[in-house]
Every structure is written in structure tokens, then in C-alpha cells.
Write a structure and sequence with these properties.
The chain is an alpha+beta fold. The chain folds into two domains: about 10-100; about 110-225, Cytidine Deaminase, domain 2. It is about 45% helix and about 15% strand. It has helices at about 15-30, 35-45, 55-65, 65-70, 75-80, 85-105, 115-125, 165-175, 195-210, and strands at about 135-140, 145-155, 180-185, 215-220, 225. Helix 2 packs across helix 3 (about 55-65), helix 6 packs antiparallel against helix 7 and helix 8 (about 165-175) crosses helix 9 (about 195-210). The chain is elongated, with a radius of gyration of 22 Å.
């Protein structure tokens, strides 16, 4: 049989050798030694064991913009791409869930103010590529330890209904002394809107009456974030 011809299950010798070489390079150099599409290839190896997945990996990166954007994309958008079955989409979503969980573990039960970069990384992993607005609340105790992380509301592409009374009520239920508000802008631009500012002021007023501090309000965009505290809005 000629070199490069099909072997069992339809995979060529070249494709098999490519998988072996790529895994060896990753084992030696880690994630810094491979490109985004190659990391995605290795995820796809598990879901598509008998086909050359390099073209699909490159197409997904081109479509969504990067490895993180691919695994964060909704399953229904992933399956629009030829070659992405429900099983492939599920494999990608599992990787995304693991990434979010890892980021969350780095901040949960830890002093938030001393692990701020990890907190931002977690919020970005969890929310940056969502296609609708999510309003998340991080609840802190007296030592600024993160004791709970909850998505309170899900909205549309440009609006999430938020009720200050419900925010404060949940903080009291958890015996939280402080909160950090977080929501995403699916447009990608994290600049606060007038509605964002007004809503934040209403929550601050409601929380202040019960001795609950609002440390910050973070808005997560695709590639950046905005901090109300840093902008002098809190």
C-alpha cells in the first residue's frame, strides 16, 4: 500500500503520524509550544478519532477567532460548521466547562482583593463570549473571602432586568458583608451605559441601608473589562 494511503477507519499514515508528533510536542513544550489550532486539534482527536481534524480546527479558529472563543461558543453555533456533530460540540463544551471550573476554584474561598487578576480571569472565562447578558453577583464575607458566586438574571443581547431588592435580599440570606456586581456586554464593548450606572447606584443605595458594601461593578467585554471603581463611578 502506497505511503499516505488510507488505513483502518479512513485515516492516512500521515494523519496518524501528525497526531503522534503533535502530542509529543505538547508533552515536551506544553501549551506555549503549540498554536491555537493545534491545541484545538488535540481536543478534537477524542471526538473524531479517525479523521484528519486539522482543516476543521483551522476553520473553527477562523470562524470564532481563537481557541477560547471556539470552546465558549454555543453548541448550536458550533454545529453549524460542517464536520461538527453534536458529540463534537459536547466535547468542546466539556473543555469550556473545565476551564471555567478551574478559574472559579482559583478565587472561591479566597480573599478576592488579593487575587484580583484571577477573579477577572474567571469572569472573562465564564462570561466574555456569552451571546446574551448575564448579571452575576459575587458575595463576600467580612474578610473579603468569596463565599458564593451566582448568576441572578439572564437577559437579552443588550438588557438584563436587575432588581436591587432581590440583590440585597440574597446577600442577607448568605450573610454577606459585601458584594461585587458583574455583567457582560455581548456587543464586546465594556463601556458602562447610563442604565448600568443608574442600576448600580440603586443597588448601592439599597445595600448601604443594610451595611452591605458594593466593592465594584465589573463589565466584561470580549477582550477587555471595565471597573466602576477604577473609573470613579463607585
Amino acid at each position: 500500500m502506497a505511503d499516505g494511503s488510507l488505513k483502518s477507519g479512513g485515516m492516512t499514515d500521515h494523519a496518524k503520524g501528525h497526531r503522534t508528533r503533535l502530542r509529543a510536542r505538547f508533552k515536551k513544550a506544553g501549551v506555549d509550544g503549540i498554536q491555537d489550532y493545534e491545541l484545538l486539534e488535540m481536543v478534537l482527536f477524542r471526538a473524531i478519532p479517525r479523521r484528519d481534524v486539522k482543516p476543521l480546527a483551522k476553520e473553527l479558529i477562523a470562524k470564532f477567532g481563537g481557541f477560547a472563543q471556539v470552546i465558549a461558543a454555543p453548541a448550536e453555533r458550533l454545529t453549524e460548521i460542517k464536520g461538527v456533530s453534536d458529540n463534537v460540540a459536547q466535547e468542546l463544551k466539556i473543555v469550556h466547562a473545565a476551564a471555567v471550573k478551574l478559574s472559579q476554584e482559583r478565587v472561591l474561598k479566597r480573599p478576592v482583593l488579593s487575587s484580583w487578576n484571577d477573579l477577572i480571569a474567571y469572569c472573562r472565562a465564564a462570561m466574555a463570549d456569552e451571546k446574551t447578558e448575564l448579571f452575576r453577583i459575587l458575595f463576600l464575607d467580612r474578610k473579603n473571602i468569596l463565599i458564593a458566586d451566582e448568576v441572578q438574571q439572564r437577559g437579552t443581547v443588550d438588557h438584563t432586568p436587575v432588581y436591587p431588592r432581590e440583590v440585597v435580599k440574597r446577600a442577607l440570606e448568605l450573610s454577606a458583608s459585601a458584594i461585587i456586581l458583574v455583567h457582560n456586554h455581548p456587543s464586546g464593548d465594556p463601556t458602562p451605559s447610563r442604565a448600568d450606572i443608574d442600576m448600580t447606584n440603586h443597588i448601592v443605595e439599597a445595600a448601604k441601608a443594610l451595611n452591605i458594601s458594593v466593592h465594584d461593578h465589573l463589565i466584561i467585554g470580549h477582550k477587555d473589562h471595565a471597573s466602576f471603581k477604577s473609573m470613579g463611578l463607585l
